[in-house]
């Protein structure tokens, strides 16, 4: 095994960067000393418990990564790595013995990471590392900031988060180059006045400590951009000198005892994010808040606010406004919020709001709106204006219905309306084609609209604790896919029923029926006799009606078309003969005696009534089930072959029909076409004499 390792390191000896990470190594072979030119060595994420003494031979090494191992000590020889600039030793077990004093000889170090090691102290020699810019000592067991660290005057980054630090020594003031100081999750209850010397600080995190206040000297942090003071449960106020933080961009003060914002806070004109949530003592926001015109995030949730200053509406760059868990009513929402057209997220849940304020309905940039746990009893139609919404939460209110206009929120992905008084959902909910989650639980809904089958993106549907009878319980228990399939089937049935009622309104409906009757005519074959009629049963549909609620004139002509076209198909017998015998319509006359009402059945009989040297005449009788003729139409038609007119008798004989001219009355047909009175008289005669009993053919 040793020879194998020797060969391996012999191959690597000329390389400047050697990566042995994630090799499950339990030890590092002493042959490592052969890496004569190595500048970067990565042995991280192994199972090393120690480093060989030969590590000290690597005088050219600049970057050493030994993180994520089981190291319980660093050998004294590590001090020989005089060229080392970066040492990564986090996530080890260096608490077993003190850190070697030899580390103080690594004077070229600019960056050291000793986080996640449970160190309790550092050797004094650590203070010799005067070139350090970056120190990470997070997640250790330090109880005091080591004074040796405070001697490194050029330090710019110091991470001491997740320790047990109670005391910050006054020597901290020597770190005059410090820019980032991270102290979250310690036990600090006081900062010394010397922190005022840290005038280059840009970022300070002091969350989850026991601070009661910041010293007045903190006002000297004139370059501060980010300050985290969350969960300092005894902090009542900020120092008056905080008005000097004119570069401040982010201030987090969740769950403190803050009672008011400091005088002069309006000087924070660069502030982007202000978090003041969980401060129940903060019952009022000053009017000066409107001067923070760079704000993009404002969190005032859980502050017992009963009012908001109108100046909030001046925060036109605001993208998130969180006002949940306060005591605001509809009339507390500032007028002018409609001008906040950068707003993406607005949280108003757990207040006392009765209706969505009109100004809110004008914020067309909103992506998320949460109005849950209020006292809302209705939702305005103007909700349709919020077309960018992807999430709408209205749960725990008293809503009895949703407006049809909700279907216009076509970008909506989440709709939550649980725990309301809804008895139904609008059909338009099926228009929410982007909807992924729908929660309508704990309402009074008895039926889901079939239009929901169109919610093709839906992944989560909660209908529990309703009064559903449609779909039935056995369908509901089988889950979303089965529910949607059931609704899809019901939707098709409804669509077919509506289609039957509004058949003629369908696009291309006329042409589809003409094709149907043509196929039907060819399937039945040619006539055996020329006087054989075509009979078609029809029904008056809703879209057939005129203003008098009778079948309109256009429909009589359309039904006559169906009969006439079928007659032509049957008289020819073959589709190919249409090329030889093109049949053209020369005119139609119609006369009426009685009306057809909605959904009345009737029979249309189409037959040849006569012909002359040029024209042949077709009649259409519209007959009620009782045999009474309600209307009569007459049409003159001609046979054409190209531009040539073919006499009807010649055409009929060529098609193989035995023509008995005396059976047809050409004069009567021509007379009916030319005289409305003659046609009407014939209709009256038919109504009195004929009793058709023909069946549809």
TrEMBL record:
PROSITE patterns to which the protein is assigned, alphabetical: LRR
Transferase recorded as keyword: no
Domain Disease resistance R13L4/SHOC-2-like LRR: 275-369, 405-467
A Gene Ontology cellular-component term: cytoplasm
UniProtKB keywords: Leucine-rich repeat, Repeat
Record-linked SUPFAM superfamilies: L domain-like, RNI-like, Thioesterase/thiol ester dehydrase-isomerase
Protein origin, superkingdom: Eukaryota
Pfam families tied to this protein: 4HBT_2, LRR_14, LRR_8
Keyword Repressor annotated: no
Name the record gives this protein: Leucine-rich repeat and death domain-containing protein 1
């Amino acid at each position: 095994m040793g020879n194998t390792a020797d060969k391996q390191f012999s191959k690597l000896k000329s390389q400047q960067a050697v990566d042995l990470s994630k090799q499950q190594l339990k030890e590092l072979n002493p042959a490592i000393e052969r890496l004569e030119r190595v500048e970067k060595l990565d042995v991280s994420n192994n199972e090393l418990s120690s480093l060989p003494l030969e590590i000290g031979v690597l005088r050219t090494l600049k970057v050493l990564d030994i993180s994520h191992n089981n190291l319980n000590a660093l050998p004294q020889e590590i001090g020989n790595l005089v060229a080392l600039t970066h040492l990564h030793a986090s996530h080890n077990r260096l608490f077993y013995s003190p850190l070697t004093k030899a580390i103080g000889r690594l004077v070229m170090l600019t960056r050291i990471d000793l986080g996640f090691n449970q160190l309790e102290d550092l050797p004094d020699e650590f203070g010799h590392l005067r070139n350090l810019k970056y120190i990470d000592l997070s997640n250790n067991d330090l109880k005091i900031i080591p004074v040796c660290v405070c001697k490194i005057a050029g330090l710019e980054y110091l991470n001491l988060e997740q320790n047990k630090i109670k005391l910050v020594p006054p020597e901290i003031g020597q770190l005059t180059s410090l820019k980032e100081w991270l102290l979250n999750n310690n036990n600090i209850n006081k900062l010394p006045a010397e922190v005022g010397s840290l005038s280059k600080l840009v970022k300070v995190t002091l969350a989850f400590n026991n601070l009661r206040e910041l010293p007045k000297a903190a006002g000297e942090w004139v370059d501060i951009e980010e300050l985290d003071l969350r969960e300092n449960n005894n902090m009542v106020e900020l120092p008056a000198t905080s008005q000097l933080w004119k570069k401040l961009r982010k201030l987090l003060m969740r769950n403190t005892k803050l009672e008011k914002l400091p005088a002069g806070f309006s000087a924070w004109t660069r502030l982007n994010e202000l978090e003041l949530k969980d401060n129940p003592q903060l019952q009022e926001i000053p009017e000066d808040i409107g001067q923070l015109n760079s704000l993009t995030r404002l969190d005032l949730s859980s502050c017992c606010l009963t009012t908001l200053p109108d100046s909030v509406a001046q925060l036109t760059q605001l993208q998130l406004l969180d006002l949940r868990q306060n005591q605001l009513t509809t009339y507390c929402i500032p007028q002018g919020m409609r001008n906040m057209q950068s707003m993406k997220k607005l949280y108003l849940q757990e207040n006392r709001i009765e209706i969505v304020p009109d100004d809110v309905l004008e914020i067309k940039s909103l992506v998320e709106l949460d109005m849950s746990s209020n006292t809302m009893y209705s939702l305005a139609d103007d909700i349709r204006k919020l077309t960018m919404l992807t999430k709408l939460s209205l749960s725990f209110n008293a809503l009895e219905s949703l407006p049809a206009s909700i279907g216009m929120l076509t970008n909506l992905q989440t709709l939550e309306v649980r725990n309301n008084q809804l008895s139904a959902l609008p059909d338009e909910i099926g228009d929410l084609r982007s909807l992924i989650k729908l929660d309508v639980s704990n309402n009074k809904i008895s039926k889901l609209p079939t239009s929901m089958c169109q919610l093709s993106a839906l992944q989560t549907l909660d209908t529990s604790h309703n009064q559903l009878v449609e779909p039935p319980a056995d369908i509901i228990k089988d889950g979303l896919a089965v529910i949607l399939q059931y609704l899809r089937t019901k939707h098709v049935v409804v669509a077919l029923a509506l289609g039957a009622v509004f058949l003629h309104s369908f696009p291309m409906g006329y042409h589809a029926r003409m094709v149907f009757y043509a196929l039907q005519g060819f399937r039945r074959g040619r006539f055996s006799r020329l006087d054989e009629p075509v009979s078609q049963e029809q029904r008056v549909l809703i879209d057939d009606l005129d203003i008098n609620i009778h079948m309109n004139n256009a429909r009589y002509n359309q039904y006559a078309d169906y009969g006439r076209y079928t007659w032509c198909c049957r008289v020819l017998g073959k589709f190919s003969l249409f090329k030889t015998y093109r049949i053209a319509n020369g005119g139609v006359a119609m006369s009426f005696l009685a009306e057809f009402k909605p959904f009345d059945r009737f029979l249309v009989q189409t037959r040849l009534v006569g012909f002359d040297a040029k024209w042949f005449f077709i009649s259409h009788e519209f007959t009620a089930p009782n045999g009474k003729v309600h209307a009569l139409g007459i049409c003159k038609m001609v046979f054409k072959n190209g531009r040539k007119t073919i006499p009807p008798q010649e055409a009929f004989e060529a098609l193989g029909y035995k023509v008995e001219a005396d059976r047809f009355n050409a004069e009567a047909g021509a007379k009916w076409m030319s005289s409305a009175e003659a046609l009407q008289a014939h209709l009256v005669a038919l109504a009195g004499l004929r009793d058709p009993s023909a069946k549809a053919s």
